[in-house]
Every structure is written in C-alpha cells, then in structure tokens.
Write a structure and sequence with these properties.
With about 70 residues, the chain is of the alpha+beta class. The protein contains three helices and two strands. Strands 1-2 form a two-stranded parallel ribbon. It is globular, with a radius of gyration of 12 Å. The chain starts with a helix and ends in a 5-residue tail after the last helix. The model has no long low-confidence stretch (mean pLDDT about 90).
C-alpha cells in the first residue's frame, strides 16, 4: 500500500494491479476502493488466467483511453 501511495504522489497516471493472498479487513477495504477507480485492479491469490488477463486488459484499455501507451 505504501508503494501505491508513492505512485499516486509521484506518478499519478500509473495504473496499479494489486495482487494479494491476504483476506484481512484492510485488503477488503482496498478491494472496494479499487472497484471505484478505473486505474486500479485488485486480485486475490491464487491467481488464475481468468482473473489476471481481464484485469491487465482493463488497465491497458484505461491507459489507451487516457493516451498513455508507454
């Protein structure tokens, strides 16, 4: 979460994919926050391609719409 705060402050146009195996209340809060933002995705472990690929595609689509393809 500290990395996300750093990116938000120093690179605000960077989409973030959170991946965690932690099912704590703080992870659930972060998951809800990500649902309200187009530039954030949240996935619980264990990872599956059914979860990972759409999350990556959504972040790429968001970047393309915003004109950030690099």
């Amino acid at each position: 979460i500290e990395i996300a705060a750093f990116l938000e402050e120093n690179h605000p146009n960077t989409p973030i994919l959170f991946i965690t195996g932690d099912h704590s209340a703080s992870s659930m809060i972060l998951e809800e926050e990500c649902k309200n933002r187009d530039d954030r995705q949240f996935i619980y472990k264990p990872l599956t391609s059914d979860a990972l690929y759409p999350a990556i595609e959504d972040l790429i689509d968001y970047s393309v719409k915003k004109g950030r393809t690099t």
